[in-house]
Design a protein that fits this description.
Strand 37 and strand 38 (659-668) form a beta hairpin. The protein folds into 2 domains: 1-95, Phage tail protein beta-alpha-beta fold (3-Layer(bab) Sandwich), CATH 3.55.50.30; 229-766, TonB-dependent receptor, beta-barrel domain (Maltoporin, Chain A). The chain is built from 6 helices and 47 strands. It is globular and about 85 Å long. It is mainly β.
């Protein structure tokens, strides 16, 4: 929004230029980033640069009558930067000094722009980058929700539609490293997973990597989701407000001085004020398998209250031209209260059950630019997560308290050296102390259990990053070594990313990585925490909760010419050290503790064609995902709980002036389930199961629609109104099935349904 505001001011400046007094020699200057945006729109080009290259540079805008070459020459003269025209579309910006040394580069040249929609691009470094401020539109989405947006990428989906359960190439959600401005987050969803917990409107970009990640990142054996707030102090005020049928939010950027800027954002649910159709659908989806839907006939009445909020703040302080300080804060909170009136011994009794989920994080980062080729940074952060559930069962006079808490103290020192304009080397040290506690208290029978574990991890890493002069070759190779104090063990993790341009249309890439992580989420009982947020974090202990290790390799081939993109990427991934407790079994292995592994082999395919006002794409993923546990199923491999063999999305977007429309169809094969034996389904309350995951649910199919229209309320305020519908045709999709025994000793299936017809509307203003 701030960028658009500045662009709007630039346009006003040009419109008013002709009316200015000829004798007025005063030149108006703007942040270079805003001038570059104006040039991108005027000449239909795209600039590639590192943020730190243009920070604190202000410049007057080039004459509107200049040709592109004249405008570039003007920028060179005014900024002392290098502008290299790569082709008729892309221009690279690099720093330079009088002595010929080059400023540190991030080497994040764009390979593919408008990847699916505007604001999504693929970088030469193999990451997919989402820029919320440039975000176009996707089917079913009105806003650039981080964890909803990445599900549009091939190989990424949520088996149960929750943003708190993102499956990247068949992995579980806890195998994803989620960072907010360099701080590891242990909670990712509001409404217990229906929407992302991170407000996107101050987020500058999100980097998503499925493989070949930098050694800078630890953890995340399945993927990395790195959210980065704006790090640029542009001395421009900006603000915005928005509301939809679930929440209201606002943000503001305030320049306090030439050296200091404050960024603030807040979001609050409106569900405690009004119950909208969107809320009703979300509530039904989340709570359909909870304790609230397992009431006995003695319940006379019940009601629920639900609310959530998140707030964030960032202070940007440029101490000097070479010293920067950034301080961050974020708070995330969910609360559900359930009231029940029951009849016990002919007496009416009332009870309250409560579930809260919260995160709190602080961070500070100091960066020092020693010269134009050497930079260091030091970051310190503290991140906490707390899940607490209180369940009152009046029929049994029982009160159950459960709590799961995580505390993470992190320190990272990083240094980067540019040997020349094509080669960077970086190295660093990272320390993390992570403590996890679990509390369970029952009053009848009297029982109390408290466990506390902590892990200290030291890591050193280093890598070299090379880009050839003509951008045809890119290579990054690195090594990370982790030392875990509790186990006195070293884990060495090589990483590789290589990209080679074969000709003007074709590019090949090779990616590989080794990774490990020492914390994961487990499920003790399916009805833990009221059956809503049943997963809890646990530290690896080397026994029933092992250290998780992964190896992944992929080869990609990409064709990109005349706005046609064809991408094919076969891959193989091995993950060892998983626990049955982390997989959510609801069959014969539900109460069994065993460690094992899974292997995924598959291929991701994307075909994207862009026209002047229309973009359409077809993404398809095939994968075979199998478990292998030495102590289960006679060590015979069987399908993973996340084994979605086929998934596809066919979608399109249409832009006409200020109107944007998106329509898409999501389809995937059903997840595996374990049926009872047809001949002898049970013995009393004990179910006799067939072979594990030997049956699959029906195919999943959902059609989504969204549309937005932007307009001006006055010369200072931009507005946007939108409408979206998830599951346009109200198709009934079964997303899970398990079995239980009723009071008549009959085995019955319990089925969980997907979201039904779910409308939403929003309205936003930007100043």
């Amino acid at each position: 929004m701030v960028k658009r505001l500045c662009l709007f001011l630039l346009i006003l400046f040009y419109l008013g230029l002709g009316n200015s007094v000829a004798q007025d020699t005063t030149k108006t200057v703007f942040p270079l980033s805003k001038v570059l945006e104006l040039i991108e729109i005027r000449y239909n080009v795209s600039f590639s640069y590192a943020d730190d290259q243009i920070d604190n540079i202000t410049i007057e805008a080039p004459d509107s009558n200049f040709s592109l070459e004249e405008a570039i020459r003007f920028l060179r003269d005014k900024t002392d930067l290098q502008f290299t025209i790569l082709n008729d579309r892309f221009i690279a910006i690099r720093g330079r000094s009088d002595d010929g040394s080059f400023k540190i580069q991030s080497l994040e040249e764009v390979v593919i722009t408008n990847y699916l929609t505007t604001g999504i691009s693929k970088k030469l470094t193999n990451t997919i980058t989402i820029e919320p401020q440039k975000f176009g539109i996707l089917p079913g989405l009105l806003e650039p929700d981080v964890l909803q947006t990445i599900q549009a990428l091939p190989g990424v989906l949520s088996v149960d539609e929750l943003t708190s359960n993102i499956n990247i190439r068949g992995g579980t959600h806890d195998e994803n490293l989620i960072l907010w401005d360099g701080i590891k987050m242990y909670q990712s969803g509001h409404f217990f997973g229906m929407i992302s917990a991170f407000n996107p409107y101050l987020t500058k970009k999100i980097d998503v990597a499925k493989n070949g990640t930098s050694v800078y990142y630890g953890d995340g054996v399945s993927g990395v989701i790195d959210m980065q707030n704006s790090n640029e102090l542009d001395q421009t005020f900006g603000a915005g407000l928005g509301i939809n049928l679930i929440n209201a939010d606002g943000y503001i950027k305030i320049p306090l001085s030439k050296k200091i800027e404050m960024q603030l954002s807040a979001r609050k649910s409106i569900t405690d004020i009004v119950n909208s159709p969107t809320y009703d659908q979300y509530f039904e989806r989340i709570f359909e398998d909870s304790n609230f839907n397992n009431n006995s006939g003695s319940v006379l009445s019940n009601s629920e209250r639900f609310n959530f909020y998140d707030t964030s703040a960032k202070l940007l302080y440029d101490i000097s031209k070479t010293d920067q300080l950034r301080v961050n804060f974020i708070s995330i909170f969910n609360d559900l209260n359930y009231s029940e009136t029951s009849l016990a011994n002919s007496v009416s009794q009332e009870s309250d059950s409560d579930l809260t989920q919260s995160s709190l994080a602080f961070g500070a980062k100091y960066s020092k630019y020693w010269n134009k080729s050497f930079r260091t940074s030091l970051q310190v952060y503290y991140s906490t997560y707390d899940l607490k559930g209180i369940n009152l069962d009046l029929s049994n006079s029982q009160r159950l308290l459960q709590e799961n808490e995580v505390e993470d103290l992190g320190v990272r020192f990083n240094m980067t050296r540019a040997l020349d304009e094509r080669l960077n080397i970086s190295a660093g040290y990272q320390f993390n102390e992570v403590g996890v506690s679990n509390l369970e208290v029952v009053n009848l029978p009297n029982f109390r259990s408290l466990s506390k574990d902590f892990t200290r991890t030291h890591a050193i890493y280093g890598e070299a990053e090379f880009t050839s002069k003509n951008k045809t070759t890119y290579a990054r190779i690195g090594l990370r070594t982790n030392f875990i104090e509790q186990f006195s063990l070293f884990y060495t993790e090589p990483r590789l990313a290589f990209s080679q341009k074969l000709n003007d249309s074709w590019r090949m890439e090779i990616l590989g990585e080794f990774k490990s992580q020492s914390i994961s989420q487990v499920i003790d009982l399916q009805q833990d925490f009221l059956g809503i947020e049943k997963r809890r974090w646990l530290q690896s202990n080397g026994e029933e909760i092992p250290l998780i290790e992964s190896q992944q390799f992929s080869v990609g081939l990409h064709y990109n010419k005349k706005k046609l993109l064809i991408s094919v990427e076969p891959f193989i991934k091995n993950v060892d050290g998983i626990s049955t407790r982390s997989q959510g079994f609801q069959n014969q292995f539900q109460f069994v503790t065993a460690s094992g592994k899974y292997q995924v082999a598959g291929i991701d395919v994307l075909v994207n064609k862009q026209f002047q006002n229309f973009s359409t794409w077809l993404s398809y993923s095939y994968s075979k995902n199998e478990y292998e546990f030495e102590d289960l199923n006679d060590a015979i491999p069987f399908p993973n709980n996340n084994d979605i063999r086929h998934s596809a999305t066919f979608a399109g977007t249409y832009n006409y002036d200020n109107l944007k429309i998106a329509l898409g169809v999501n389809w995937h094969s059903g997840k595996p389930v374990t049926p009872p034996l047809a001949s002898n389904p049970n013995i009393g309350t004990l179910i006799n199961y067939d072979e594990p995951n030997s049956e699959s649910l029906s195919d999943y199919l959902r059609t989504d629609l969204s549309a937005t229209y932007s307009f001006k309320m006055n010369k200072n305020i931009d507005a946007l109104a939108g409408v979206s519908i998830l599951n346009l045709f109200d198709r009934e999709n079964i997303i899970n099935r398990y079995y239980t025994v009723n009071s008549d000793d009959e085995v019955i299936p319990i089925e969980n349904q997907s979201l039904g017809f779910t409308p939403n509307i929003n309205f936003r203003v930007r100043f």
